[in-house]
Amino acid sequence: MEKIGVFCASSNEMEQKFYDKAAELGRMLGKAGKTLVYGGNSSGLMEAVAKATKEAGGKVFGVVPRKLVEAGRVSDCVDITFYCEDLNDRKQWLIGESDVMIVLPGSAGTLDEAFSAIASNTFGMHKKKVIFWNIDGFYDKLFEFLDELVGRGVVNKPWNEVMERVTTVEEIEKLIGQ
Question: For the chain, which terminal residue's Cβ has fewer other Cβ atoms within 10 angstroms, N or C?
């Protein structure tokens, strides 16, 4: 696994611990010589992971929608830029270019990307896993809901075949290899 997709928040209003963990992930990716594939935004956890990846020697691939360019919010950390039209385009490129996807804390856009990757795996369009990094219990309630879906009989493919749940960067490192 060389190209690591990361879905995460662009918010600058989160607790510091989340930016620190995003940077920790970026340092691990950079030191391992991985390529970060992400949304190209110059703010939030997106910028924290990109900056740390680049500083640690990794490559940064940004998939940048036109509106982000127009708003002047493209990260200076991006080595390779793919310009796309909108979020749907971006999501498809992020999933397509990544060998695996890691989900950090985020909101609607992050969850949209994660669940699109999970759904397309379930549908047999790829076999890439989505790794949820549950920093400080951020996704506990989501996991409860997902587990409830299993009990209600609506899950067609076991969650452990399409996603992983981790709490440390070391677990991520083991899953993506060096």
Answer: C
Task: Single out the residue of 61, 149, 139, 125 nearest to residue 97, CA to CA.
Answer: 61
Q: What is the pLDDT along the chain (178 residues), one digit of tens a residue?
A: 899 999 999 999 999 999 999 999 999 999 999 999 999 999 999 999 999 999 999 999 999 999 999 999 999 999 999 999 999 999 999 999 999 999 999 999 999 999 999 999 999 999 999 999 999 999 999 999 999 999 999 998 999 999 999 999 999 999 998 6
DSSP state of 86: S
Question: Tokens in use for 162?
Answer: 């399409």
Q: Are the C-beta atoms of residues 50 and 76 closer than 8 Å to each other?
A: no
